[in-house]
Amino acid sequence: MTGKAWKIELLGRLSAGQDGKIITRFRTHKTGLLLAYLAFYPKRIHAREELIGMLWSDSDADAGRTSFRTALASLRRQLEPSGTPAGSFLIADRANVQINPNTVTTDVAEFEFALKTSKKTANLSEKIIALEQAVELYGGEFLPGFYEDWVISERERLAQYFLDALCRLAASFEQTGNVGRAIEYARRVVGADSLREEAHGELMRLYVKAGQISAAKRQYNELEQILHEELGVAPSPETRLLAARLQITGERGEKLISSSAKTSIKSSISLGHSAARLPVFLTKFIARREELGQIKAMLTSAQTRILTLTGMGGSGKTRLAVEAARDLLDNFNGAIYFVSLADLRDARLIADTLLKALSLSRLANSEALAQAAVKLSEQPSLLILDNFEHLLVEGSLVVRELLERVPSLVCLITSRQPLGISGEQEFPVSPLPIPAATDAPENLLGFGSVQLFLDRAQAVRPDFQITQANTEAMGQLCCHLEGIPLAIELAAAQAKVLTPSQMLGQLARRFDFLVSRRRDVIERHRTLRSAIDWSHQQLAPELQRFFAGLSVFRGGWEIEAAEAICEESGASDYLMKLQENSFVVVEEHAGTMRFRTLETVREYAEQQLSEEERTKLLRRHADFFLQLAETAEPELGKPEQAEWLKRLEAEHDNIRAALEWFKADENCADGLQLASSLLRYWTGNGHLNEGREYLEFFLTRSDNVPKAVRAKAFHAAGWLCLEQGDYTTANDFYEKALILRHESGDKAGVAALLSSLGTAALRQGDYATARNLNEESLSAFRELEHKQGIAASLGGLGRVAQEMGDYDTAFSFYEESLALRRELGDKIGIATSLANLGETARYQGDYLQATALFEESMVLCRSQDDKRLMPPLLHSLGEIAREQGDYERATALFVESLKICREKGEKRNIPYCLEGLAAVAALRQQSERAAYLFGAATTMRDAMKFPLPPVLHSGYESVITIARDALDDKTFTAAWRKGQTFPLEQTIADALQTAQ
């Protein structure tokens, strides 16, 4: 860069100046705002997507990116003219943008530097010089004409700094004896904010000290007039008290002053706008915009007198309350007061603490609460009482009395539990949103938890960014931190020495890792453990014991489980108290109230148990969920199976914990009973591999387990292997189960195994064996008059006939099976039979009938909220659409199927979806995409040992050939290998995004 540095002015106007050249006009409003933001944070490296989201949130993604590129190009043209080296002002690559910090300065930076200088020096003359320099640099409000949230927040902060500088100058000049200059700056304070009563009082005092009695009187009269015209009120009792002490009266009074009033009288009123009564945060307010809007709407509603923000320690309640209050200064004409109660131990002192926050001195023979009420009654006021939880019992009565005395008062409380008084509205402050495992990496910055981490990490390491290398670790880290703002900030502070991946490793001991080294952090927020300790200490001993017992649950629980496992008949009342204290979250799930804790809280609770207590609780926990599985098993074959599948899915983490306990306890009999009782759950909810692994683990150690239990487990394991395409192992398990069933004389068990062996033979293309086994099974079930088994065997015979091309016979078997299932009321069985009939019609080319049958089956599945059959049904409909040349409908159906698989975490049907999308891509001449998707599907099938069914081979080979012929070998192979090597989740996300 050949000239001087650019000087960006942000105070009073937006302009850029260099070598006498001044630029005040920019291509668009947002182009100017982009320059301002980059200049305001010159040392930060900004992610393009973050900037686009901030500036063009009202546009779709592509339009936003286009607008951003245009704005960036425009700034380059203005600030890097022809002949200027690229990057001399703007440093940008495909992911990030930064202003060159070496070639730019701003009036804001110079203003804040002067203020810092004034605070560092103890020399009064040097302090005055620095303050005057700061005041001179303040050319007006920050970015006038811009009203974005971050601008408004910084505008208020900088305006307060400016007013503070004026006040400090007035005090400094008074200290030097130069009362005239002190009056000059005190008048500037009044001019900047004429409604600031304290400033008028300070100016009155200085006038009296200077002997300017008439000026003091005029100032008081001016204040009376301003307050009357602007607000319709009289000066506050404090100001009137000050006037009386100065012996000044208003226009209606007779006595103005006494000669003794010329002596220096120190005001009892704190100088500062009500905004200064709010805590000042030196970090950006991240996310929470929706919650902020809701809180502001509630606080300005006539129905709200008391609003309590509740949440666990470190959830951000105080920050949210302060930000809401800052936005409501105009609504309350500045009458907003913040009272911190964290260090208060006696609720009887609340009133005195309130007086201090109101800048009132305790009057003799006056009740503190009454005195506070007088002040708060002067106009509608907002009172923030922060950290109230430890004062609830007596403190809530104080709040109620204050509200009764002051009808125009609104109270905003932050507490880990509500006050429990009439009229109170509760606003739970939840953790920040966290990314899920299924979220695409490029979407990470859309989550508040990630935004907060990034901002706080950049505060200690300005070059920290989310990159391709750390994206996965970042997502996992924010998930493990569970969106708790305090935990995120404590972790982000480590970014100076640790990568996100290294932080993940440290979270195994999260309470030792999440510690702050900052000196300005309050003690209870210095560590994550201390934040929870603060609340835990408020619990009664019996509640602490119950809370510790809940740590054995994983993923949540119902009241009945808590009663049984914690052996506490009063669990309902205890859970309510824990919920009120923000230790427990309550949610409605499938018509039942469920409770859960954050993993961070659960780990803390677990640390409160002795090893003996923990062992007893874990044993009761495992026994409880074994009993639940045994109760659910027969219900999963009935019409109500959908409800039971939902319930078991909700308890998945608890079931897994129970199985792990049985493994650790070497209790193979109960482990096998639990795992095999869940067969319909493993298959129905797509947990095939997990179920198989547990069964195989226990079966290898089951020699002393009763035959009936082992036979049931071998059958279940065989079925899971069959679903995964591992036919050899499936047959082995089935044969072992069959021997045990024969030895036990279990005829129904033998019949079911014959049917299962027939299915395995069919899938291996051994039609004759499959038919014989299913006929033998059908005969056995008929002898037992077992209608459910008969329907299943008929379905098996139908599938054999269908695979052999004997569609009439297949149709006959399926219809007989359907009739039995209708008689039994087995809705999912009915849906299965309809789907089988639909496949037969499809193979015969009767697409109209096939579609009707598939759609009828889907209606039944949706009525039961059972998504097990939905992916294959949607896939079959997609295949019909593809075969008819309706590629858009085919794509939509494959995408819907893929979404359900992704939502359920069920991988078995994902290859079908990818192959369907690949076939459409090949037919649409999107050959590279087709090869990529086929490569991904093939790799997934190999990993699951779930081969492509023979009936589909010829069809897919033909479309693969279409894609291969359209590309040269190198391109086709590269695309195929890309599908093989890309992470599955990224492939799925790409498939969904591209298809839409």
Number of helices: 46
| Mean of all residue-level pLDDT scores | 85
- Low-confidence segments, given as residue ranges, are 250-276
Question: Approximately what portion of the residues adopt beta-strand conformation?
Answer: 5-15%
Pairing-aware structural class of the strands and helices? Answer: alpha/beta
Given the C-alpha coordinates, what overall shape results?
elongated
Distance between the termini: 46 Å
Question: What this model shows, in words?
Answer:
The chain is α/β, with parallel strands linked by helices and 996 residues long. It is built from 46 helices and 14 strands. The strands form 4 sheets. The chain has a 5-stranded parallel β-sheet with strand order 9-10-11-8-12, with helices on both faces. A 4-stranded mixed β-sheet has the order 3-2-1-7. A 3-stranded antiparallel β-sheet has the order 4-6-5. The longest helix has 28 residues, at 149-176. Residues 250-276 have low confidence and may be disordered.
Write the layout of secondary structure elements.
Elements: E1 6-9, E2 15-18, E3 21-23, H1 29-40, E4 46-47, H2 48-55, H3 61-79, E5 90-92, E6 96-99, E7 104-106, H4 107-120, H5 124-137, H6 149-176, H7 179-192, H8 197-209, H9 213-230, H10 237-245, H11 289-299, E8 306-310, H12 317-327, E9 336-340, H13 350-357, H14 368-376, E10 381-386, H15 392-405, E11 409-415, E12 424-428, H16 448-460, H17 471-480, H18 485-492, H19 500-506, H20 510-513, H21 528-536, H22 541-549, H23 559-565, H24 571-580, E13 585-589, E14 592-596, H25 599-606, H26 611-635, H27 641-650, H28 652-664, H29 668-677, H30 679-684, H31 688-699, H32 707-723, H33 727-744, H34 747-763, H35 767-784, H36 787-803, H37 807-824, H38 827-843, H39 847-863, H40 870-883, H41 887-904, H42 910-923, H43 927-944, H44 950-966, H45 969-981, H46 984-995
Helix pairs in contact: 1-3, 2-3, 4-5, 5-6, 6-7, 7-8, 8-9, 11-12, 13-14, 16-18, 17-19, 26-28, 26-29, 28-29, 29-31, 29-32, 31-32, 32-33, 32-34, 33-34, 34-35, 34-36, 35-36, 36-37, 37-38, 38-39, 39-40, 40-41, 40-42, 41-42, 41-46, 42-43, 42-44, 43-44, 43-45
